[in-house]
Specification:
The chain has about 270 residues and is of the alpha/beta class. Helices cover about 40% and strands about 15% of the residues. The chain contains 8 helices and 8 strands. The chain has helices at about 25-35, 50-60, 85-95, 125-150, 165-170, 175-195, 220-230, 240-250; strands spanning about 5, 15-20, 40-45, 75, 100-105, 160-165, 200-205, 260. It has an 8-stranded mixed sheet with strand order 1-4-3-2-5-6-7-8, with helices on both faces. Helix 4 (about 125-150) links the parallel strand 5 and strand 6 (about 160-165). Helix 3 (about 85-95) runs parallel beside helix 4 (about 125-150). The radius of gyration is 18 Å and the shape is globular. The termini are far apart.
């Protein structure tokens, strides 16, 4: 694959491009598709799986006719923990797109470790989770915020969405470090929403369990228990999360500094 190539079709929509980290994953690909099918240009970053990224790019380009022939879509190899790659990504976005309408910090990692297995959660995994989930998201905000500020200075024109988790709120998730990393993301959301207003809005979208490949890593009995404790009776899908992100960009334009849960009411039980 020719790394970091971009596919140019037509002009960029006036709303600016949408940058999604971890764009080839379950949630990221759904977010990319949601924006692409509505005529937005999408840049999806990936860490290691170039094959999935190529398939996503092909799928986004297939959506162009149905979205009115608009859209300039790209994939870019940029692990969010690699400072040089993040700077290269910023230069690429500035050159090819000029500005961003939306930054979605979706890239993240975790591994299942029971919360009572303190020895099982190694220092290596703690560092990896915190560096990717929290530090990586902050690094993207730090690098891209200048591209989100519109030349006209119009209030609320830029949007950062941090994909969090209700694990950061109620402390139940794949492991203790993962819960802590998501709590850190929510705290960062509040801090940045305050200091970047009014030119940029910052919101956490906080799902519960999301149905997909990752849920196969958990015991079926545990998963069913989680469904039973969800008032809506099911887990979220990637599409549910994508719809929330899209609504923040297009409808909920007076929302900032808050946590938007997409959990089917899980926190009620």
């Amino acid at each position: 694959m020719e790394e970091n190539r971009n596919i140019i079709k037509n002009a960029i929509p006036s709303g600016g491009a949408v940058l999604v980290t971890g764009g080839a994953g379950e949630i990221g690909s759904a977010i990319c598709r949601k924006f692409a099918e509505n005529g937005f240009s999408v840049i999806a970053t990936y860490n290691s799986n170039s094959t999935k990224a190529e398939k996503l790019l092909a799928a986004l380009n297939d959506l162009i006719p149905s979205s009115g022939g608009r859209g300039l879509h790209s994939i870019f190899h940029a692990p969010t923990t690699d400072a040089q790659k993040v700077e290269e990504l910023k230069a690429f976005v500035a050159e090819k797109y000029g500005k961003l309408g939306v930054l979605v910090n979706n890239a993240g990692v975790t591994t299942p470790v029971p919360h009572d297995d303190l020895d099982g959660l190694t220092d290596e995994w703690i560092d990896k989770i915190m560096q990717t989930n929290f530090r990586g998201s902050f690094a993207m905000c730090r690098a891209m915020h200048s591209l989100l500020v519109p030349p006209s200075g119009l209030a609320g024109a830029g949007l950062i969405v941090n994909i969090s988790s209700i694990a950061g709120i109620y402390g139940i998730g794949s492991n203790v470090a993962y819960c802590a990393s998501k709590a850190a993301i929510d705290s960062m959301t509040r801090s940045l929403a305050r200091v970047l207003a009014p030119k940029i809005r910052v919101v956490s979208v906080s799902p519960g369990f999301v149905e997909g490949e990752y849920t196969k890593n958990f015991d079926p009995t545990f998963l069913q228990n989680q469904r039973d404790h969800t008032p809506m009776g099911r887990f979220a899908t990637g599409g549910d999360v994508a719809q929330a992100v899209f609504a923040l960009a297009t409808s909920l334009t007076f929302t900032t500094g808050t946590i938007l849960t997409v959990d089917g009411g899980r926190l009620l039980k």
